[in-house]
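ARCHIVE CARD
Drawer: 12
Card no.: 0347
Subject: one protein chain, sequence and derived structure
Cross-reference: see card 0346
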Amino acid sequence: KSTILRTLVGLKRPAAGTVRIADQDLWALEGAERERLVRRCGVLFQGGALWSSMTLEENVSLPLETYTDLPARQVREVARYKLALVGLAGYEGFLPAEISGGMQKRAGLARAMALDPEVLLFDEPSAGLDPISSRRLDELIVELRDSLGATVIVVSHELPSILSIGTNSIFLGTEERTLLASGPPRELRDACEDPTVHRFLTRGEQTARGDS
């Protein structure tokens, strides 16, 4: 799953096939052209990937300082706005080690949104979070998706996240090494005939029956 994500954002060349963003073949482009296309995407890595020696504001400011010509004052304003969007207003001066894991994920999301991307990609966003923090992050992702009009791509094996976020889904078989099913996850849960996909999407229900 993570390999596909790296391929989508231009970090790993695909063995076959193409990656198309805004109807452009990412891997057919070179240099500055490919870089401009990649910047239309924002990524939240599994561990947050925040710079530990930088404050949250500095972390969010970094892509703005690197890829735009905005003056320092405006960079600061944008960084603070993005942090406010994810509920971190007032934490601009905190270091990553001074906040919780859930807050670190939200700060990583603010940084992913720094350049106003059209596509947001998440690598196991709920990994390492408690159920409450995980649910809040899922709700934030959906809220931002709807308010910003961005396309959201989530790599996850967390069933609650898949069902709450996903409007379309792709299931990959680890043994088959191919696509097993695709479609809205709730519809696949109720109607998919592939036994592997059905077990995955109903495992919570099976556990509940087993416990009873």
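Annotation on reverse: The beta strands are 20-21, 24-25, 41-44, 119-123, 151-155, 169-173, 178-183. The first helix runs from residue 2 to 8.
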